Amino acid sequence: MYLEVKNLVKYYNKELPIIRKLEFSVKKGEIISFLGESGSGKTTFLKCIAGLEKIHSGSILLNNVALNDKGIFVKPQDRKIGFVFQDYPLFPHLNLEENIVFNLDKKYHKNLGYILTLTGLKYFVSRYPHELSGGEQQRTCVARALIREPELLLLDEPFSNLDSAIKQSMREEIYKIIKETNTTTILVTHDINDSLNIADKILIFKAGIVQQYDKPEKMYCEPANCYCAMILGDMNKLFIGSKTYYVRPEKVEVVKKSNHKIKVEKCFFQGREYRIKGRYKNEIWYFFSKKSINENEEVFIDFKKMDLIYFDPVCKNFFK
Amino acid sequence: MEIIKNYFIVENKRWIIVSLLIAFFLLLPIVILFIKLFSDPGKNFFYLWNTVLIDYTFNTFYLILITSLFTLLFGLFPAWIISNYRFIGRNFYDLVLFLPLAIPSYIMGFTYIDILSFTGPIQSFLRNNFPWLASYFNIDYLQIETLGVLLGLALYPYVYTAARVAFSLLGSNYIDLSKSLGLSTIKSFYKIILPLSRPAIFSGLFLVFMEVLNEYGAVKYFGINTYTTGIFKAWFSLGDIGTAIQLSCLLLLVVFFFFVLEKISSSKTNFFYETNSPVQKLLYVNKDKLFLFHLVCSIPFILGFFIPLIFIVNNVFQTYSSIDFVRLFTLSFNTIFVSSLSSFIIIIVALFFLFIEKISKTKINTIISHLISLGYAIPGAVIGLGLIMLFSNIIDSFFSVSLIGSFYVLIYAYVIRFLAVGKSPIKSSLEKHPESYDDTGKNLGLGPFKLLQKIHLPINKFALISAFILTFIDIMKELPITLILRPFNFDTLATQTYEFAIEEMLPLSSAYSLSIIIIGSMLLLFLKNVINKQLNVS
User: Fold this and answer.
1) What residue in A sits closest to B460 (Cα-Cα)?
2) Do A83 and B434 touch (CB under 8 A)?
């Protein structure tokens, strides 16, 4: 494995560790998305990997070199790790090119032209940070990290400061750049769409531990627990006997006749289709329909048995 | 690749050790005073206690009270008007309202007493034109109440500046909200704006308290007994250093009392400003209010700057033939030299401590950084006494003789006293920049020194210039420390002004006063320009 994190523990208050026991590994060139709520310790984790925060126990191995292990701590400036921070910290007294080549080893100067072309920044080299748009600032930060040919790239919520109009195109651009340079990347985000769009694997992090670490499709269809299921999208709750099952909205179909009748509460127009909110046996359900449905109208819905997901009954209260 | 084989290392150890050492030297004179207090009680303390101590305490607090009332009166209302209204002359007032900072309070005192004296322009005019009225003005102006008003005129810019920033930052939401709840403009001011701005205004007022406690020249000229004059009297007149130390320690307790008050008040600041909204848009003024606004804004400027300046300029013309230009030039050079050198050292020390505090993230450095800022709250006379105690008792007598009365000790004292003045603008500038600059710098391979050199120095350059100017002006005006610790035969513009005035030769002091005011005003106007540039950049 290219990056191996074993039993990583980090706390500010010993009683409440922010990372309890983190263990996972990444292959060369893979993009891993670290998904969790705000304040769950995602940024702290990235800082631990980069050496900007000390860990309390555990080990980090990158490309067969121990960065953190018993009695070993490699300084942040000596780790070959690129870090793109959430707030795009470009130094205001330097222009775009000076920011990219800031404190750069001579051997990497040859990469400048390639990186500028790759990130589409070659016409802005003399501009200062306040003269750049959010997207350009973000690409400059990525360029500054990539020009050093890092062994690992860390992206901390890189799309959170962008408006939705350019978010999608930026995601695609960043994905293209990372794959073209074959850079192993950890992307930290709280937005599931970021993860589903560009990650090879998703790691769901909650309460200081890994909840699930898998490919996006598998995670979506076979979530390890109800938290993982909920974080990846809406879930409709269904009681069969004494058991509670869940079904994804897109697995629910509007049919002419079935055993399941639902009363429509709201119909949201979403371009290609309508997103319907309804009440089924006192539970709120969501599903999609090609046609608009009036409020208070009752319709029949159906779903396949194989699409039902079952969790242990204690799961639903676990994270409350 | 450097591998550190220890988990529990303290980052930047060497920097922290150096900061501890410097902090030790900055706090040493005060520690020495307390050691002396308990080891060598003064003989005359009980005599003082039975005679003048209550008088000292009453006068000190009474003077603080009057001065505070007038600084609030002269500072708050113009700040509110300038922050909220657009009218012709607004920019001019905004520029000149803090110019009284260029006039040392003792010069303000000397000048006004001369203006109001029997032979001064006001009484002369009244005698010639309204003889029946003149007798009412022929009173003794050397009273504590007059001094309070004059100190109010000299010190209101501290309150004005703090309130101006607070009122501008408060944002429009609170004002819109209070209006929507049916409050009039005046009620909004008293019920919403003033309580919300209280911590900021109190921090300005705290500086006023400290300046009054530290005031020596004007208080001595008015013949009022306060703690500071008491320290000088016990030391120089009674020759009782023990009593001077006891008075200094009592004064430190008073300072500590105000310091705790300020901390309690400022601890709520974050809460107040967290919910800030867009900055209040400037309102146009009705014609009927315009005259009132001009009156409110112009009175502090006219009384606090314009009249003393005109009077001093007039005195300079009257005494032009007797001005010793060589001496004036020499003293201006001395003043600029000692103020520049001290300010430069202060900026380096302040930047060093703030940078260590930023990168080390250890509690000890935060505590030290707070402790060394206390120097500003300690009156110059106390610092002077502490340093003389230090060098005359601890260090070998040969060295102590050559050190006391040298530039080294004078600059040492300035650094202790004015470090907080230099720290303040640098601290707020450093706090404005995100922590990710440091993390990015480290991630890109910078060590602490390069981080300071390549990132923090260039991006905080305006703050460094502001800090230098503010410190320079304060040191240029400083009197007690300079009087106590200056080298033999070394004068500054401040000490010369004071010596002429105290010898009742006020017209002769005018050329020196004017030099202080001109240098101070030019620097303050330059500072305003720097601040405007800074605002444009960020």
Assistant:
1) A93
2) no
Reported ipTM: 0.73
Helix or strand holding residue A166 (H, E):
helix A164-181
Own/partner pairs for A136-142, CB < 8 Å, 24+ apart? A136/A96, A137/A88, A137/A90, A138/A84, A138/A88, A138/A162, A138/A170, A139/A170, A139/A173, A139/A174, A140/A88, A140/A90, A140/A96, A140/A99, A140/A100, A141/A84, A141/A85, A141/A88, A141/A89, A141/A90, A142/A84, A142/A174, A142/A177
Q: Where in the sequence is the domain holding B454, given as residue range(s)?
A: 10-39+320-538
Six-digit token pair at B308? Answer: 């003393």
CB contact under 8 A, B4 and A50: no
DSSP for B381-436, written as a single string? HHHHHHHHHIIIIIS-HHHHHHHTTSHHHHHHHHHHHHHHHHHHHHHHHHHHS-TH
Q: Which residues of chain B neighbour A102 with C-beta distances below 8 Å? A: 444, 454
Which two three-digit tokens encode residue A282? Answer: 């006192």
CB nearest to A85's CB, from B1, B9, B436: B436
**Could you report the per-residue pLDDT of A155-199, keeping only the tens digit for each?**
998 887 777 767 777 788 888 888 988 999 999 988 888 888 889
Residue of B nearest to A144 (CA): B444
On average, the pLDDT of chain A sits at 87
| Residue whose structure tokens are 């900007």 | A52
The CATH number for B537's domain is: 1.10.3720.10
Structure tokens at B479: 């009197």
What gap in Å lies between CA A63 and CA A27, rounded to an integer?
A: 10
Q: Are residues B16 and B138 in the same domain?
A: no
| Rounded distance between C-alpha atoms, residue B498 and residue A269, angstroms | 81
Query: Is the CB of residue B446 less than 8 Å away from at least one CB of chain A?
Result: yes
Burial B137-162 (b: 16+ CB within 10 A, else e): beeebeebebbbbbbbbbbbbbbbbb
Instruction: Report the distance separating Cα A93 and Cα A98, nearest Å.
Output: 9
Rg (CA), chain B: 25
What is the residue whose two structure tokens read 């769009």?
A197
Residue B259 shares a structural domain with residue B230: yes
Domains observed in chain A: 3-226 (3.40.50.300), 234-318 (2.40.50.140)
Tell me if A77 and B455 make a contact (CB, 8 A cut-off).
no
Which residues in A lie closer than 8 A to residue B459 (C-beta atoms)?
91-93
pLDDT at B271: 45
A64 CB within 8 Å of a chain B CB: no
Residue B179 shares a structural domain with residue B53: yes
**Pair A277, A234: CB distance under 8 Å:** no
Partner residues linked to B17 by β-bridges: none
- Residue B4 contacts A where some CB pair is shorter than 8 Å: yes
Strands A243-247 and A236-240: what pairing? Answer: antiparallel
* pLDDT above 70: residue B532: no
Whether chain A has a CB inside 8 Å of the CB on B295: the answer is no
B441 contacts B451 by C-beta, under 8 angstroms: yes
Is-contact A185 A178, C-beta < 8 A? yes
In terms of C-beta density within 10 A (0-12 exposed, 13-18 middle, 19 or more buried), how is residue A312 classed? Answer: exposed
Lookup: tokens for A181: 């340079």
